[in-house]
Structures are given as C-alpha cells and as structure tokens.
# Entry
Amino acid sequence: MDSISIVVLPGDGIGPEVTRGAVRVLEEVARQGGLSLEVEEYLVGGAAIDRYGEPLPQEVLQAALDAGVVLLGAVGDPRFDSEAPARRPEKALLTLRRELELFANLRPVKTYAELADASTLKREVIEGVDLLIVRELTGGIYFGEPRGLETRLQGRVGFNTEIYYDFEIERIARVAFDAARLRRRRVDSVDKSNVLESSQLWRAVVSQTSEDYPEVELRHILIDNCAMQLVARPRSFDVLLANNMFGDILSDEAAMLTGSIGMLPSASLGGMRNGGRVGMYEPVHGSAPDIAGQGKANPLATIASVAMLFRYSLDRDDLAERIEQAIVRVLRDGFRTADLAQPGTLTVGTDRMVEEVLKRL
# Structure
C-alpha cells in the first residue's frame, strides 16, 4: 500500500500542544483503518521567523505543495504585531491558502447537548444547532489590490480593495449548494448588496448558479441581519455562504454557539490531486499565547479537524465518524478542558483530554 503524505505545521502558541495530540489520534485512526501515513513536521509562522527569519520558508511551502494535505495548529505571535505584513506569522497562512489554491473553507458548527450550558446563549436557543459555514478563502478584501499605507496631503491613509470575479463566486457557490444537497437543502447567501458593488455581483452570480440546484432553497441575507439572526435564531440556518471577510467574522461568532471557540474545526479545500482532495485542516481558534505552554488548551477542535481530513482528503467517512463519536463520548462522560468547565464535570488538561479520546476510538 502506498503511504499517504501529510504535512504537520504545529505553528505558534498553543498550536504545538493541540497538534501533538491530534497527530496521535490521526496515526491511531489510520492504523485502525489500514492506512499507511508518512507524517512530516515543519516550523511555520512565528516559530519559523525565529529559526529562519521568515514565516514560511520555501522548503515548507514545497513540502505542503508536494503532499497536498496539511494539518495546521495555529499561527500568530504578538511579538510580531508591529512588523510589516510580510514579516508577520499570518503571512504564512495566507500564502499557503493561495499557493495550495484553497478557495473553499468549511466550518461546521454543531452544538453538543452536553455543552449547551457552556454557551452564553440560552439552552433553548442553541439546542439542535447544526449549520455549515462555507467561506470563500482566496479572494476579496484580504487579497485585493491595491492595498497599503500611505501619507497623502490630507494625512495618513490605509486602504484595501474588495474585489471578486464572477468565476470565484460561482465556484464557491457550487461548494455551498453541493453541501446543502447532502444536508437540509437550504443555502443562505450573505452579502451587503445594498451598499457594495462587489456584493451586488455576488448576489447576481449566486442567484444564477442556484438555477442548477432547483432542489436547494436559496435565501439572500444582508451581513448585519445575518449576524443578528445567528445569535437570535441559529437553528434557522443550514448552509451559510459568505465571502472571505464576512465568513471570517461569522464563523468566529458562530463558535460561541458551541460554548467555546476551542470546539470548532475547519477544512480549507482546493482541487483534486493524486485521487484525493487538496486540503488544509486547522482549528478555528487562534494561537492563544496567554495560555501557551500551560497544558490548558482544548485539543478537540484540532482532533475534529483530523476527522475532516479523513472525510475530505482521504474519502474515509467511516474513520471521520469514529473520531467524531469519540469526542461525543468524552463529553458525555463529563471530561472538560478549562474553557468548557461546568459544575459537576471533571476539568482536565490538554494531554489528558487527548488520552480520553484515544481510549474511546
């Protein structure tokens, strides 16, 4: 059997802690599923800047391109906040997305009954929430040109460009509609078409694309209304389709429905290669430098990202479900990391939580 190459990029802050445990789960489940893995680990982000003077060395980028499957911990380090964009850890993340052509980000948001009381919202609001945020990842204001900081006659000015081509909108819309076909067959497309021309094109292209999916209901919703409805009536959503910036903001908002941002996985997907889908898998949470090295970090989002890796890049739904059910059983048995701690539960550290998941695989 040919081995499957996977590049692991632990990154910064709590990234190495949560990634270490997730790799143990990855290797154990692969063993159970009869898969042969070749796992290679590299420095990225602030850790790479410290060692190599740049956030994404060419060797690391080439390894990611060769493998086509990446597990990422987190990037971000406040020590570099005042540096130029090219010298910040986040530059590695944006470059990986662009070079791997990862145009679609999938962020499932599902509330666990065991964690309903951990959310800041009422139990009756969040119980039964099961939605998927589909975020366009390689266009929009994060990549648009021109951009920059300048001094002009009137003073200092910062500027960015929100730009989308019709083909970029169509391909991400198809990802959302295809996903909805396998769910509850409804897509809410988020825009700001009452103000932005880029959103007017977004709405037009999504509407046109929807004609190929007559079985899927399409609703258009403005970003401000969507942000409000997401906390008022989150069960009303099935698939949320959004551009790069709107999807970034909404997915972090939606994370709090689950009780902690430490519970949300994500998959960034591109095209097909060598019989599998190119993908980068990472937790939604950041590097959390305030708790790094203390063994407090919640590894469940990273472990759930491994489940998405099996599902989307390796086409092994059975192994993905095995991991997801293990997470459910751990929560049902009362184990919690500090971000999820509740009366009557047992608060454990990162490594112990990983051990409990492994026991239940």
